[in-house]
Amino acid sequence: MNPSRFQAAVERHKAEMMQLAARSGQPGNAVGTPVTLPDDADAVVNLPEAGAGRDPLQTFPPEQNTCDVFRQINQKTGFLRIQAFAGQQTVPVKGASVLVTHDFTDGPRRFASGTTDESGVLDGIVLPAPDAALAQTPTGEMPYALYDIRVSHPDYRTEIYKQVPIFPDVKSIQPVQFLSDHTN
């Protein structure tokens, strides 16, 4: 088989698999649906390593887009895996609720939600991401999309991770270290 035809077949298969994963509903809920976020007064907010309100990887200003503009900019996909543990990552946390959102000028939107399995894992989260070419040719645009991740369980304090970068065609892993909720 001609190498260029083979590569074209691989790309078509990849696109079909991405579409299938996006339609599968696992994890659930329609992408980009408006969401009312719970009051997280007792939650632990984990800010990006660069500090509050700063992009974790670069110094670009935060985007001020609507959800529709965001979807136009981020037509590729990236992947996310949540790994929830307690006790120095020795005890997997089954049944933790995960909510992946992004804040826009027109309000917060849900991009994925689900529950961790018996291994403390929620895998297969497919999220919009920009084209990989942005990382290869600096244009001033972020080569990744940023999301907020809220992970909660009735036996633990809620953990919120702000501005988690999702790159195209890359699986990002977000470890969640639960601490006991002493208010219950």
Characterise this structure.
This protein is 17% helix and 39% strand. It has helices at 3-23, 67-73, 133-136; strands spanning 33-34, 44-46, 76-86, 91-92, 97-104, 107-115, 121-129, 145-153, 156-166, 171-178. The model is unreliable at 22-28 and 56-61 (pLDDT under 50). It is built from 3 helices and 10 strands, in the order αββαβββββαβββ. It is α+β, with helices and mostly antiparallel strands and 184 residues long.
Keywords:
Immunoglobulin-like; globular; four-stranded mixed beta sheet; alpha+beta; 184 residues; 3 helices
Question: Would you summarize the structure shown here?
Answer:
With 184 residues, this protein is an alpha+beta fold. Helix content is 17%, strand content 39%.
Ends: how far apart?
Answer: 63 Å
Query: What is the CATH top level name?
Result: Mainly Beta
Describe the biggest sheet?
Answer: 6 strands, mixed
- Shape verdict: globular
State the secondary-structure class. alpha+beta
Mean pLDDT: 79
Overall structural domain count: 1
Strand coverage percent:
35-45%
Low-confidence stretches: 22-28, 56-61
Task: Round the Cα radius of gyration to an integer and report it.
Answer: 17 Å
